[in-house]
Amino acid sequence: MTLCTKILQSINTTSPLISWTTSSRRPPLHTVKLLESLCINFKATPSPSDLYFLNLTETHLELRENTASGKISRKPLFVDFITGRNGYRRLHNSTIRQPLARAIGIKPGFRPYIVDGTAGFGRDGFVLACLGCKVTLVERSPILGALLEDGLRRGLRDEDVGKIIREQITLVVGDTKNIIKTLSPPPFSIFLDPMYPKLQKSALNKVEMRILRELVGDDQDGSSLLYCTLQFAENRVVVKRPKEAPPLAGISPSHQIGMKNSRFDVYLTKG
C-alpha cells in the first residue's frame, strides 16, 4: 500500500502569492505533478510579488521566505515525520493517557477513526496515528497540503514510520465542510484546531505561527466548521482552544480537558 493523497477542487485559493522553484537537477515527477494539481506555478526565480516560495531540493520540499519581497531570510520550513519533534513524540509520548488521546476518545482496546479537519503541519494527526488510530488529515491550504504530502512520502522510507503512514494515514487537500459529507463510514471523532487569536500561546514556534497565519489567515469560518462537523461526527467533535478563550461559536462543550496553556473542548454528539 502506498501513500493515499486526494486533491479536491474546493481548495483554498486565498493564500499569499506563491510559486515554486527547484534546486534539484532531477526533481521528483510526482512532486512536480502535485504542485501543478494544486495550481502552484513554477518560476525559475521567484518574483518580488511572491511572499514565499516552495523550493524542491534534492531531498525534500521546503517553504522559504522571499527576500526579494522584502522579507528577512529565515530557516526554511518543511515537514519531517521521522526526526525532530514528530520523531520524539512518536518514541516518547505514546501513552493513551495524554490529554489529546483522552479527548479524542481513545480507550484500552479501542482506537477510533478520526478526521483531523485542520491538519496544518500534521503533528496532532500523526500522534493519533502513532497511537493506532486511522486518521484522515484534511488541509485546505494547497501550500501546507504540498508540504504535508512531501513529508508523508519521505516518511514512507523509514520502516517504522512508513508502516504507520501506509496503514493509518490518508491526506486530503480540500475544505473539511465539503469533505466530511462524503466520508463513509463517518468518523467517530473529528478534531479541530482553528487558528488561535493573536498573542495566544501555541505549541508552534513564533516563526511557524506567523507563517501559518499569513498562509491560511485567521479561521473566520471556525464557527460554521464546528456546526457542520457536529452533524457528521459519530460520537464527538474535539476543539483545541487557548486556555482562557471562550468556547468556539459560543457553544458550551460537553466537557473540557485542560492543559497548561490550552484545553480541549469535547462536544459529544451521542451519549
Question: What would your notes on this structure say?
Answer:
The protein has 271 residues and is α/β, with parallel strands linked by helices. The strands form 2 sheets. The protein has an 8-stranded mixed sheet, with helices on both faces. Strands 2-3-4 form a 3-stranded mixed sheet, covered by helices on one side. It is globular and about 55 Å long. Helices cover 30% and strands 20% of the residues. It starts with a strand and ends with a strand. The chain has helices at 29-37, 84-92, 99-104, 123-130, 142-155, 159-168, 176-179, 206-216, 222-232, and strands at 4-7, 18-22, 52-56, 61-65, 114-116, 135-139, 169-173, 189-192, 236-242, 255-258, 262-268. Residues 9-16 have low confidence and may be disordered. It has 2 domains: 15-69; 84-268, Rossmann fold (3-Layer(aba) Sandwich), CATH 3.40.50. It is built from 9 helices and 11 strands.
